[in-house]
Every structure is written in C-alpha cells, then in structure tokens.
Specification:
235 residues; 9 helices; mainly alpha
Amino acid sequence: MDISAMIPELLSALPLTLAIMFVALLAGFCLALVATTFRVRRVPVISQLADLYVSYARSVPVVLQLFVAFYGLPVLAGLFGVPDFLSATAASMLGLSLYHGGYLSEVMRPAYLAVDRGQHDAADSLGYSFRQKIFRVVGPQTIHIALPGYGNSLIYMIHNVALVMYIGAADVMATAHLIMERDYNQYQFQTYLVLAVIYSAMCLIVWLAVRFFERRSSMYVPNAAPIKTTLMASA
C-alpha cells in the first residue's frame, strides 16, 4: 500500500479522534473550573476532595486512568446492580476528561493567584460584585496568564488521545495499527510518518490558535516580559 492509499483510510478515523478530544477538552475544562474554584476559596471538605482529585489526575499515568474508566467503573457499577454501559469511546472521553480537568486545574489556580491582590481590592473599592470582579477585572488577567499553560495542556491532550487504542477505541492510531497488521508490517515507516504529520498538523493548529489569542489579549506586549496592569477607575 502506498501513502496515497493509506492517507484516506487514516483520515476516516480522524473525526472520532477529534470527537474524543473535543468532548474531553470541554468536560475537562468544566471540571477544572469547578475544582479550581473550590481550591482557591478553600471550602471545608469539598476543597480537600478537589485537591485529592487533582492529585489523582496528575499522579496516575493517563493510560492507567483509561483502564480504570473502561475496566474499573463497570465493576463498580455492577456492585450496585447497574449493567455495563460504557463503550470504549465513552470510557476514552471520561478518562481523558478526568485527566485534563486535574491537569488544567493546576494551570488555572496559579494563574488566578498570580493576579495582584491590589486588583481584587480595587474592584471591591469600586463596589463590584464577585461576578463583576471576575468577569471584568480578575478573569481577563487570569486568562492571559494561563494561556501558555493552557496551550500546553491542549497539545498534551492531542498526544494522549493516541492512548485510547489500548482500550479498543478506533481512533487514528488504532486504525494505523490495523493497516500495518493487514499489510504484514511492511509499511511501518510510511504509516508512522503519516501519523507524525497528522499529529504535528493538529498541534500546529493549536499553537497558532493560542498564539492568536495571546496577541489579541489587551495585556499583550510584543517582545517584552509580562507586566502588571492596574485597574482603571473607569473600568
């Protein structure tokens, strides 16, 4: 099989790969937002549980988290009489969401804490509600600080999606292995080369998108170190 015949077959599995990735990114972002909120505000018991979740997500290898989601949760559900309802695709989304949420929380929390305390005090002195303070003052600065780390987490997610083949999800990597097995491993180099181009293209798109939003940020200063901004009285 030449490369021209291989590429369409690999690309046919790309929608599933992207679907797993986007669901995990969205669900992981929501989990990270909730976990970060409780970790920053230090709500008794709940904050400790959030810390425990983040520690699990960051300490356990991603492939093991996928195994826990695919093999462990059905066993746990069976103890309560619930039948196995997780497909390989759903387990992939769940496992990667838990991983991404914990990792991203450790991007959001330092970014929030890096905003100068004077910004909070200035917003309070102007009579802003907590919601107004977050959306108008603290949030934009937090987003600017967190963008590089968030970009890295997106790239890590693209890399880790390739692991879902180990629990049977038919993503691009799994399709590539099926192609190689079908052709008796005659075209391993060509197959891996095409895979490298596909994953590199996805990472490049993410990097360009993050770079675009960094430049669109009101705090962006070309060829300069990040600077602290002050809240204007007219904000």
